């Protein structure tokens, strides 16, 4: 078989003015003043220049790395922090406008984005920097069709905060928006957003997205709705901002989660109500009874289901970490989604994938496993700010769901074969 070889090439060019004709783009752009790339480059450039200037005179014609055009918000170069940020934002939009003019409709472009930890702590995922970043791409004529989290850094890097950390980078997929794209109003946007997020969530969960990253991932289909319109108009006729759209995407996601709660079994709904009200705290029996009776339950019955302890006039919801590691679902005549999800999260964290897979195989015909996966995400969301270690159990289970499911399916196949053919043979 003949091998075709192509010569590669590299060149230095201003991203805001160069041509992108015929180019397929994947870029990790600078982020405000996060890193002074050209200043760092000087450390290496001066030595490379000494050894390579005669070989590549066009690349090493300057004493130091060019800095004036660098798209980084350096306050000392632009007269202050505000002026530097304005320089960065205008240049960023200009780059994506240039790329839009030569965009290939057959292929998306991909853009990498990494949050600053301080930005997350102060403003969350609807942060000013993130919304400005998205706004620049949308105004340049792009539709944001997907956002996908990836683990691109080592665990000890800036963006990692234990197992509950957001993925260190978000990859955005962009396609060109047609010049004839229609406008819509707030009501039209919200209706389309609800319908499309509802359809997208099951598909996203199939992608083994950890609960900690789910809110980032749902921004993809949410921003796809927002950015496919030429503009979204508020009730007073003003254009909706990206920051408002991000907040509405999150609110719609929360509403979909709450709508689903009504379909859960009564024991699970009790546990959710209890955790929202009291967490893992011990409370008087009357508090439990007031939550149980409207659901047609008794406190004794819920306790028999293995999710809470009741005695001496006191009631406590059992943490997943404190559940019995010898639990056998075959001997449990009151199985709830809450109980199964907590046992699976504990088993995966404490004993590993195979133990969790065996439990999954044992409960497969008694609960909906998709519902268990969904509840793991719900519990992560509920507990993240109040009990990070327990939230981490559910994040771990959600992130490993595809692997645990695959192992469970293998174990079930082996069990069926042994039943049909007998013994080890």
Key features of this structure:
alpha/beta; 9 strands; 3-stranded antiparallel beta sheet; elongated; 4-stranded mixed beta sheet; 425 residues
Structure overview:
The protein is α/β, with parallel strands linked by helices. Among the domains are: 266-318, no CATH class; 320-420, no CATH class. The chain has helices at residues 37-52, 75-78, 81-101, 117-123, 128-139, 186-205, 211-227, 242-261, 266-278, 285-292, 299-304, 337-351, 353-363, 369-383, 388-399, 401-421, and strands spanning 26-27, 109-113, 142-150, 169-176, 184-185, 232-233, 283-284, 308-311, 314-317. The strands form three sheets. The protein has a four-stranded mixed β-sheet. It has a three-stranded antiparallel β-sheet with strand order 7-9-8. A hairpin with a 2-residue loop joins strand 8 and strand 9 (314-317). Helix 12 crosses helix 15 (388-399).
